[in-house]
Design goal:
InterPro entries: 26S_Proteasome_ATPase, AAA+_ATPase, AAA_lid_3, ATPase_AAA_core, ATPase_AAA_CS, P-loop_NTPase. By secondary structure, the protein is α/β, with parallel strands linked by helices. 53% of the residues lie in helices and 9% in strands. Bound molecules: adenosine-5'-triphosphate (ATP) and magnesium ion.
């Protein structure tokens, strides 16, 4: 029903304006998005014609409802009788009320509709997962020269803009369990703080190139609805004395400003690597700054999940190593993981495949190599004007990728 959508919008605005204790997180995500301005969402919420049009194209019938007034001059909708509107919507919008914390807050004390604010809140995603919310925070940081400079060091993603789903990555049960733990810790931050268990949420991903470390960090941001702050240590390492230390501090500062979020530090061994080459006071200082920054950030108090990734764990010294509460391995994928990657990547492609054979033939391949196999096979099939794939094309593509891998090791 199109009418109920607009009335839900109007009532949500009205109830939100009346009850100061309601927060932006209580407004349903789809409605919240309509109200974002340059500096976030401002009270009171005002519903104009173009606001209403965002939830329904057909709004003329709303104007004739006895509890609605539309001002032709200001183009603004108003509820003229709150009680009537509440009654009208109770009869027609119960399903919407159950999922709308703002409305559930009001309606839980109204008649016996059996709605609960707490229950409704579970349906609603918090605002820090909104692309628009992140934009307003970034716009705020850009206003100040110092913080604007910090933004240049990192890449920031809204979870809404991340394409990769957690479910489309082949992970071991052990890995999945660790990510489940992080999710629970995030939900129970208050409890963990209360009992003083703070050292959670610092993960180190180790493994060879192409095994899914970056992909998993991004997918985790989408799964947990947290913004992702991504930085490569090589990108913030400067040849100028002291700059690297300052940059490291700035990156951690940005993460705290965007909290709750995930801070993903890629090429984590980079600082360690430079240390072994040019033993140099500035580099030592950079490592110390990194250690100190890691110590001074945690999920429970700061809302920051720290994920570091490296291909060269042996380069990291023990001081760095022991600051991470979980080391998550991304090894060269065993058969069971290769099987899963094939299954996932072929699930939307037409054709009959002998996955057992594909798994056998790809010993030593990483996830990235398998993706390359599929891509090659698909392109070859397109060259032949063929729809979908077959086993032969896949086996040939495995051969091509195998040759390429051999080239890499033969020089
Ligand atoms: N376990 C996996 N499941 C699904 N896809 C995978 C897996 N491992 C790798 N891939 C695919 O391989 C590609 C490369 O993965 P990714 O960039 O995450 O690797 P990485 O471990 O970060 O490598 P590097 O150490 O070089 O940064 C991506 O397209 C990803 O989808
Ligand atoms: Mg990577």
């Amino acid at each position: 029903m199109e009418e109920t959508k607009v009335i839900e919008l109007l009532l949500t605005a009205e109830v939100y304006n009346r009850y100061e204790e309601l927060t932006e997180d209580d407004i349903p995500k789809e409605i919240r998005k309509i109200f974002y301005g340059k500096s976030g969402i401002s009270r009171p919420l005002v519903v104009k014609m173009d606001t209403a049009k965002k939830v329904s194209k057909n709004i003329d019938s709303i104007k004739s409802l006895p509890f609605i007034d539309f001002n032709e001059f200001s183009k603004q909708f108003k509820i003229t009788s709150f009680d009537l509107a509440i009654q009208w919507f109770a009869k027609r919008g119960l399903e919407q009320i159950k999922k709308n914390p703002v409305l559930a807050y009001y309606y839980q004390n109204y008649d016996s509709l059996g709605v609960s604010y707490e229950e409704a809140k579970r349906f609603n995603k918090p605002k820090y997962g909104d692309r628009e919310w992140l934009k307003t925070i970034i716009a705020e940081l850009e206003k100040n020269e110092q913080t604007a400079e910090m933004l240049g060091l990192v890449r920031i993603y809204s979870p809404e803009d991340i394409k990769i789903d957690f479910a489309s990555i082949a992970l071991t049960d052990e890995q999945i369990r660790e990510f489940d733990k992080i999710e629970v810790a995030l939900e129970r931050r208050d409890y963990l703080k209360e009992i003083g268990v703070l050292e959670v949420g610092k993960l180190m991903f180790i493994g060879p190139p192409g095994t899914g470390k970056t992909t998993t960090a991004r997918a985790l941001s989408k799964r947990l609805h947290l913004p992702l702050v991504e930085v490569k240590l090589s990108m913030i390492t400067s040849q100028y004395l002291g700059e690297t230390s300052k940059n490291i501090e700035k990156v951690f500062e940005i993460a705290k400003r965007l909290s709750p979020c995930i801070l993903f530090i890629d090429e984590f061994d980079y600082v360690a690597k430079t240390r072994t080459s040019d033993e140099h006071a500035a580099v030592k200082r950079a490592v110390n700054t990194l250690l100190k920054s890691i110590d001074e950030i945690n999920l429970v108090e700061d809302g920051v999940i720290l994920i570091a990734a490296t291909n060269h764990p042996s380069l990291l010294d023990t001081a760095v190593w022991r600051r991470f509460d979980k080391i998550i391995e991304f090894p060269e994928p065993p058969e069971i993981i290769r099987r899963r990657i094939f299954e996932l990547s072929l699930s939307r492609i037409k054709g009959e495949f002998d996955i057992d054979e594909l798994v056998k033939l790809t010993d030593g391949f990483t996830g990235a190599d398998i993706k390359l196999v599929i891509r090659e096979a698909v392109l070859n099939s397109l060259m032949m004007n063929m729809e979908g794939l077959d086993q032969k094309l896949l086996v040939e593509a495995i051969g091509e990728v195998r040759e390429r891998l051999n080239l890499k090791t033969s020089y």
